[in-house]
Amino acid sequence: MSDPLYDELLQLALEAADRAGRLLRDGRPADLGVAATKTSPIDVVTEMDIASEKLITGFLTEHRPHDGFLGEEGASVTGSSGVRWVIDPVDGTVNYLYGLPSWAVSIAAEKDGETVVGVVAAPMRGETYHAVLGGGAFNNGERVRHRPAPPLSQALVGTGFGYLTERRIGQAEVVRALVPQVRDIRRGGSAAIDLCDVACGRLDAYYERGLNPWDLAAGVLIAREAGALTGGRPGEPASQELTVAASPEVFGVLQPLLEELGAWHD
Ligand code: IPD
Ligand code: CA
Ligand code: CA
C-alpha cells in the first residue's frame, strides 16, 4: 500500500532533482573553476554546487516549509514536521569540474530519522534512479534488481577515495590487497551513482570509507530496494566509518574481508 506522504516526498524529490540536473547540465560555464576548497586542497566546490543546493532547498521549502534540511553546501535546518531532506547538490564534483559525465544530484527524505525516499538523477546518462521504502527500486520508472552474484574472484567492485592524504594511504592499501582477489576495481567518482550501479546490476559491489550522509542516503535506499545488501562493519548500518553495498552472496564474502583488511579505519 502506498503512503500518501511518501508519494508526495517522492514527487517533490524527483522534480527538484530534475530541475537541479537541468541547471547543472545546461548551465555549466565553459570556464567553470573552483570557487572554494573544503577539507583539503582537492576537496573542491564550484559555483554550480552552491546554485544547485540553493535551487533544491528553495523548491522544497516552498512546498514543505516545516521540513528540516541537511545539505553538503551548508543547508542545516531542524524543521518541525519530522521530515528531513538530505541533499548532495552535485555528487561527483571533480567529474563535473573536468567535464566528465559521471555526476549526479542526490536527494533523500527521512521521516523520523529513517530514509523513506531516495532519488539520484544522473543527467549525462539520461537516467534517474528512485526508491521508496518497501516499494522497490527504479531506473527511469523501470524496476531494477541487483546482479546475480558471481564468486568474489569474478566480482566487479566499485570504490572511492576520500580527500585527505592520510585516509587515501589506508584506502590504497585496501585496494592493493583486494585487486588480486576480484575481477576488477572501478573508481567512478560519484558514490551515489556507484550505489545505483549496484542497484541496476552494473557493479557487483561497492564499498567506501568516509562517506557523508548526503553521499549515501538516497543511494543506499535504492540499492537495498533493488535487493542488494547494505551495511558498514559487520552488524552495523552503512555510515561514515564504512559503506558496503553488494548482491547478497558477494556481500557475505566482501564485508568480512573488508573488516579483515581494516577498510573501516585510516
Ligand atoms: C565524493 C564522491 C566520490 C567519493 C567521495 C565523495 P563529492 O562526493 O561521491 O565518489 O569517493 O568520497 O566525497 O565531493 O563529489 O560530492
Ligand atoms: Ca558527494
Ligand atoms: Ca557534493
Task: Please provide a written account of the structure.
- It is a single chain.
- By secondary structure, the protein is an alpha+beta fold.
- It folds into 2 domains: 4-144, Fructose-1,6-Bisphosphatase, subunit A, domain 1 (Fructose-1,6-Bisphosphatase, Chain A, domain 1); 152-261, D-Maltodextrin-Binding Protein, domain 2.
- The protein is 36% helix and 25% strand.
- The strands form 3 sheets. Strands 4-3-5-6-7-8-9-10 form an 8-stranded mixed β-sheet, sandwiched between helices.
- The longest helix has 23 residues, at 4-26.
- It is globular.
- The structure holds D-MYO-inositol-1-phosphate (IPD) and calcium ion (2 copies).
- One calcium ion is lined by residues 49, 72, 88, 90-91, 93.
- Residues 49, 72, 88, 90-91, 93 line the site of one calcium ion.
Topology:
Blueprint: H1 4-26, E1 36-37, E2 44-45, H2 47-63, E3 68-71, E4 76-77, E5 83-91, H3 93-98, E6 104-111, E7 114-122, E8 127-132, E9 137-139, E10 142-144, E11 156-159, H4 165-178, E12 184-186, H5 191-199, E13 205-208, H6 213-225, E14 229-231, E15 243-246, H7 248-261
Parallel strand pairs: 3-5, 11-12, 11-13
Antiparallel strand pairs: 1-2, 3-4, 5-6, 6-7, 7-8, 8-9, 9-10, 13-15, 14-15
Helix pairs in contact: 1-2, 5-6
The structure holds D-MYO-inositol-1-phosphate and calcium ion (CA) (2 copies).
